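thread: overnight batch results

M.L. [08:02]
morning all. the overnight job finished for the chain we discussed friday. pasting input first so we're all looking at the same thing
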Amino acid sequence: MSPYHRQHQLETLYAEAPVGLCFLDPQKRYLSASARFCRMIGATAEAVIGKSIHEVYEQAFASIVEQTLDGLMQGAQSAPLEHQLPGRPQTYLAYSHRVLDDSGALLGLSIVSIDITARKMAEDALRQSEARYRHCVELSPMVMWVAEADGALSYISPLADGPVGCSMEQRLQAWYDRMNPQDRERAREQWLAWLPCQQAFDNHFQIQWNPGQWGWVLSRARPYIEEGEVIRWFGVFTDISQTHLLEARVEELEAQLRKQGSSPAPAR
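M.L. [08:03]
and the structure it wrote out:
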């Protein structure tokens, strides 16, 4: 295109682009800046175009920007830079590109700034939600777990007495190590045999909560199904040790009553 067409294309781009655009020369002066970019930094075009970064920003922030620009102009790898301006709540993502002339001489930096405030707010809300969920799960007397469609466990919530910072593989292995070996094989066989029916699953087995302290666990799982196919299973392990002890005690008492009822009445 002719210089005339290029100029008009550039002017249209700066006027209509939904992102902030600017160009800095090697002396770190703004030779051009779109209206959106000026609004992003809270300044007028007159206060930006033709001014150096030290004239546009507070000195502390300008020094940080200068270090980044110097590295980019010297050929450092260009990576998106996430930043916030002092005193402003918005978060921006800046993409910088070196502009060279036909001889390879540096003309300056072309910078594209994108407002990612809404995305950051959504990410922060998600992190807070995940943190609340994680704390609730860790304090729960139940252990949550997730299995893939083939039945392989892919997630288990942290145990109250488990070490901090364990990987998911370590967490899963620690759980398997707590199970009674015979129950582990039986539970695995029953679980894999159950998968094709795509129905709710219930099972129970023995587990060692503390060294030498055996208890009973109820395992329950429900499938998550999309278009007739199981995507994954969501389950929970519940400690039923006390319930199991009570049931055993009731059976013992009932046996004693039956025995007493079958004994001959004493002679009078």
